[in-house]
Design goal:
The chain is mainly β. The chain is built from one helix and 14 strands; from the N terminus they run ββββββββββββββα. A 14-stranded antiparallel sheet has the order 1-2-3-4-5-6-7-8-9-10-11-12-13-14, covered by helices on one side.
Length: 276
């Protein structure tokens, strides 16, 4: 498959007015022209896709590349990898963001166990401006799930992150890991309840942060799950908090579950899709 796109934005008339002094003024300052090209190839057990894009704007220019490959190497075992890089330039700064990702899914048809594994290597760099910045992060997250033939389900999560940063000519390094546990019980009529807890440990600072709270879930139809929960205590982490709500307070989840027979879709979801 092949795809292509063209997007153009022009300001016909520019005016600025303010109805409320505490709000932003109206008007557009983001004129640009963007083009993109994509290609994909799909076999019975594996697939590949790629995309390049370029945006020429009045305020900033942006170039991007994305590619991924995924497949089912054995029944119930899927692997995948993706790479994306974006170069954003303004009048005074340049930012480069790159993410190399590897994913693994273990989901046999007759097994009660499911394993999801993902490794990210992320580069984030800003040149120019008042605060130049360099960051390299290695993030690995593994999720192990067990579901018996009746009503109980248990999940264990472990994440590990190593970060090197250079901020204002000073170097920083640190290792952080995450341990999570969740148990769920099916009540009846597509309703379930759960309890989950997470522990975040910063080894260099020897600091501990916690997240803990109950959830109530509802399944309106097959492979769709809606839940409402509340964390009595919580924390935020720019990497570990992306995939799950860990902050203190109420939260809402809407999830689509891939069928157990389709391992390729699971690993394709793990390695991600293009765009940033």
């Amino acid at each position: 498959s092949l795809t292509a796109g063209l997007d153009r934005s022009d300001t016909i008339k520019k005016s600025s007015y303010t109805l409320n002094g505490n709000t932003f003024s109206a008007g557009s300052e983001g004129d640009y022209t963007a083009v993109n090209f994509g290609a994909g190839f799909k076999e019975k057990l594996w697939g590949w896709n790629g995309r390049v894009e370029y945006r020429d704007g009045k305020e900033q220019d942006k170039a991007g590349l994305f590619t991924s490959i995924y497949g089912e190497v054995k029944e119930g075992i899927g692997i995948g990898s993706s790479f994306q890089i974006f170069d954003t330039k303004t009048h005074t700064t340049e930012q480069i963001f790159a993410d190399l990702r590897f994913g693994l899914v273990y989901r046999p048809k007759i097994s009660k166990w499911t394993l999801l594994e993902r490794l990210d290597i992320i580069l984030d760099s800003i040149r120019g401006g008042e605060s130049p910045y360099d960051s390299l992060r290695f993030i690995n997250v593994a999720n192990l799930n067990y579901k018996d033939s009746k009503k109980w389900q248990f999940s264990v999560q472990y994440g590990a992150k190593y970060v090197t940063e250079r901020i204002d000519e000073r170097d920083y390094r640190g290792f952080t890991d995450l341990i999570g546990f969740e148990c769920r019980y099916d009540i009846k009529n597509n309703w379930d309840i759960g309890l989950r807890a997470k522990l975040l440990h910063s080894w260099n600072a020897d600091q501990y942060k916690y997240s803990f709270g109950p959830t109530v879930g509802y399944t309106p139809k097959r492979n769709i799950w809606i839940s409402l929960g509340y964390n009595f205590i919580g924390f935020t982490d720019r990497d570990f908090s992306k995939s799950d709500f860990t902050s203190q307070g109420i939260f809402f989840n809407f999830r689509l579950k891939f069928d157990q027979d389709d391992v390729k879709n699971s690993v394709r979801w793990i390695v991600g899709s293009g765009g940033n």
